[in-house]
Amino acid sequence: MYATVHQFRRSHADESDGWGHALAAELHPGTGSPGTCTLAQVGGATGLVVALWRDRGSALAAADRRTPGTSDARVYEVSDVESGAAEPRIAQATWFDRPLTRAEADAADFGGRERIWPAVRKLDGVGGFYVLTAEDRSSLVLGFTDSIEALEAVQKAVMSTELLPGEDPALLPGPDRVDVHRVLHTSLPAHGLVGEPR
Fold it and tell me: Theoretical Cys-Cys bridge with 86: which of 13, 14, 127, 147, CB 3.0 to 4.6 Å?
């Protein structure tokens, strides 16, 4: 399974009810995406349209599409999905822009699965997350909660975890940037996608 992430510049004057869904539909009209999501940065002027695709060719074709206001687009492989019960109203986009070495990528994957997700999955308001990995092993982690307060609880829990035996802090450089968004529209499925035929 693959994903495209289009970045866009918000036009606050034109943001009527339902504009997030309309933007995703305009960008990916009738293209057979298994799910889309529109995010608007809290207190900012940018946003993201995330769309899932069942094969790399479809994702590459989708990445070439543009609508007024959309700019950069990247293709990622969906490398992990964890589901949560809460309604996704808030999203944290954690960007690892620097291409990782194989050892760093493996360390990040281990830490996410074995240390971070177990620390946060039972917290109130957690709505799951997606790990998106590019060909150069740069990545984007999208985590969803039902409120800012729940997101802050997740952040606190993550920062309170201790490295597990065998984890090397030198292989965990941390994210390059973190953005917080409101979820304007989502039809992203929680699971059943990773590991399907590509």
Answer: 127
